[in-house]
Structure formats: structure tokens, C-alpha cells
């Protein structure tokens, strides 16, 4: 994607003062024109959708794995999170979670390392790299979360060593124990990664198709996506909301 002018959210407020739309027909015309303008100017960017935001004159531009914001002309694009200060809600994160929902039940769980905690009644899927420090942080967080089934899709994207460790974990007799031993206790897997590891190749292909651009990426049972290593209270709240 071509270089984008980075503006602050204060600039977005200024745009809101100077820009406005009338009837819905005009809004539709503006959205269509804005999409054409941005597609021409942003090169390799693939625009999934453009929608109005709560700020008059500022538009949400959904690029799939990222949301940016634009004025009505497409002359200025802003990169950053839009936050509702009244509720302290991150609107950008919420929109990404909603627009990138998946059909959780259709995930190929046979290609994941399965760990059951308690009764396992709540379910999440995690795309994780064995050398990702934030993935290790998430595993530590999961120690305090009960009654959950965690499907970990080995997603080695950081280095060749990540691939080697993923294959060794997958080829282990007890994948779940080997995974947790490495992520929590730093006991490196020792099994030769010479078994059938096509599942890892499939995970990489699946992750790319789902715009999984970083690890860890969490998917809840309702299909929503949660980025990064969330704190335990936030993860517990999200899990409870889907159960």
C-alpha cells in the first residue's frame, strides 16, 4: 500500500466540524466515490467496505485486517483507533471483531492441539507461534481460566525455528503436554518432527485466508476475533459473553 498520511484523532474532530452529509442517497454517492478514489490512490489495498462513523464526515475504511479512517474526499487518511470516551469502548477493535467474524464450528479442529481445562464447556481457538513471547504470555493467562477448551493452531510465522518446534510438538505423543511444557516451563520439545506435519501447512494457509497477521490471534465460539495476549479479566469477560 502506498504511504498514507498519518493524522491524529484530533484532526478527525476537525474534519467532523467542516464536513457533513445530507440525505442517505448523497451518503451512498459519497461512499461509492470515496471507494473509487481510495482504490485508485492506495495501490494494492483491498477495500472490503466503507461505512460512516459516529463522527460526521469521517468514514471507516475496512481493509480486512485493518480499519483506517478517511474524510469524504479521500484526500486524508488516518491510522489509529477510534475510541468512544463516554464508554471507553474501542470502536475500531469492536468493528474489526464484528466484520471479521468466522464460522467457529467449521474450523478444522483436527489440525489443532487440544487442551481441556475443567469441564471444557467454553471454547476458543488460538493461532499461536511457539516462539512468540505474547503467545507465552497468553498461555500463562490461560492457567487462571477454567472450564474452557483451547484449540491451538500451530502457526509458525516468526522463524525457521518456529517451524521446527511446531513440527516437533505436532509429532509428540502428547501434543498438549509438550505444548504447555514448552510455552509455560520452557522445556523444549525433543521429538523429531518427521511425522506427517501437513496440518501445520494447512494452518498457515488457513490463517492467511482469515487475515491472521499476528500471534496470538484468538477466535471465540461466536466467531469474534480478539487480537493479542488479553489480560485474564478481559478474556474471562469475553468467554462469559459467548457461553
General description of the model:
By secondary structure, the protein is of the alpha+beta class. It has two domains: 9-99, Nuclear Transport Factor 2, Chain: A, CATH 3.10.450; 104-242, Glutaredoxin (3-Layer(aba) Sandwich). It has eight helices and eleven strands. A five-stranded mixed beta sheet has the order 7-9-8-10-11. Strand 8 (122-128), helix 4 (133-142) and strand 9 (148-154) form a beta-alpha-beta unit. The longest helix is centred in the first third of the chain and has 18 residues, at 24-41. The radius of gyration is 21 Å and the shape is globular.
Order of helices and strands: HHEEEEEEHEEHEHHHEEH
Q: How many domain modules?
A: 2
Strands side by side in the biggest sheet: 7-9-8-10-11
CATH architecture of the largest domain: 3-Layer(aba) Sandwich
Q: How many strand units?
A: 11
Task: Tell me the major beta sheet.
Answer: 5 strands, mixed
- Helix content bin: 25-40%
What is the 3D shape? globular
Question: Can you count the helices?
Answer: 8
Strand content: 15-25%
Quaternary structure of the protein = single chain
Name a few traits of the molecule.
disordered N terminus, 2 domains, globular, 5-stranded mixed β-sheet, alpha+beta, single chain, about 240 residues, about 20% strand, 8 helices, Glutaredoxin, Nuclear Transport Factor 2, Chain: A
Amino acid at each position: 500500500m502506498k504511504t498514507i498520511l498519518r493524522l491524529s484523532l484530533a484532526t478527525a474532530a476537525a474534519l467532523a466540524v467542516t464536513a457533513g452529509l445530507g440525505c442517505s442517497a448523497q451518503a451512498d454517492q459519497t461512499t461509492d466515490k470515496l471507494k473509487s478514489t481510495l482504490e485508485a490512490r492506495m495501490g494494492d489495498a483491498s477495500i472490503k467496505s466503507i461505512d460512516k462513523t459516529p463522527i460526521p464526515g469521517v468514514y471507516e475504511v475496512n481493509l480486512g485486517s485493518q480499519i483506517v479512517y478517511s474524510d469524504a474526499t479521500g484526500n486524508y487518511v488516518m491510522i489509529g483507533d477510534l475510541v468512544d470516551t463516554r464508554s471507553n469502548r474501542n470502536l475500531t477493535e469492536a468493528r474489526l471483531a464484528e466484520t471479521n467474524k468466522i464460522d467457529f464450528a467449521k474450523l478444522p479442529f483436527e489440525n489443532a492441539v487440544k487442551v481441556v481445562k475443567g469441564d471444557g464447556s467454553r471454547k476458543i481457538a488460538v493461532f499461536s507461534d511457539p516462539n512468540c513471547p505474547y503467545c507465552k504470555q497468553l498461555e500463562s493467562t490461560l492457567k487462571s481460566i477454567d472450564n474452557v477448551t483451547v484449540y491451538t493452531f500451530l502457526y509458525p510465522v516468526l522463524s525457521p525455528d518456529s517451524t521446527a518446534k511446531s513440527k516437533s510438538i505436532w509429532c509428540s505423543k502428547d501434543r498438549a503436554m509438550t505444548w504447555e511444557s514448552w510455552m509455560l516451563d520452557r522445556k523444549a520439545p525433543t521429538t523429531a518432527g518427521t511425522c506427517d506435519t501437513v496440518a501445520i501447512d494447512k494452518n498457515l494457509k488457513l490463517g492467511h485466508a482469515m487475515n491472521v497477521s499476528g500471534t496470538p490471534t484468538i477466535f471465540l465460539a461466536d466467531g469474534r476475533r480478539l487480537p493479542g495476549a488479553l489480560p485474564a479479566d478481559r478474556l474471562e469477560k469475553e468467554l462469559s459473553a459467548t457461553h
